[in-house]
Amino acid sequence: MNHQQPLPHATLILIFGILSILCCYCYGVFGLVFGIIALVLANKSIALHRRNPE
Predict the structure, then answer these.
(1) By C-alpha distance, which of 21, 23, 14, 6 is closest to 41?
(2) Digits of tens for pLDDT over the chain (54 positions)?
(3) How far apart are CA 47 and CA 29, in angstroms?
(4) What is the rounded distance in angstroms from the CA atom of residue 35 to the CA atom of residue 13?
(5) Cβ distance 6 to 49 under 8 Å?
(6) pTM of the model
């Protein structure tokens, strides 16, 4: 059986991405901060997935 593990921080990345879009309209600086955090965490998860796609 092939048990795939979820990527670390996947839910957190999704939440920060949504918050960055929502906050971009109301509070520009907070949207930018959430977006940067989401991108950094996503890049780390992508690098981990490329090293071990299982």
Answers:
(1) 14
(2) 567 777 888 999 999 999 999 998 887 788 899 999 999 999 999 998 899 877
(3) 27
(4) 9
(5) no
(6) 0.81
Structure tokens at 21: 């879009």
Contacts for 14-19 with beta carbons within 8 Å, 24 or more apart? 16/41
CA distances for 6 relative to 3, 32, 53, 54, angstroms: 10, 26, 11, 10
Residue ranges of the domains in the chain? 10-51
Got the DSSP string for the chain? ---PPPPTTHHHHHHHHHHHHHHHHH-HHHHHHHHHHHHHHHHHHHHHHHH---
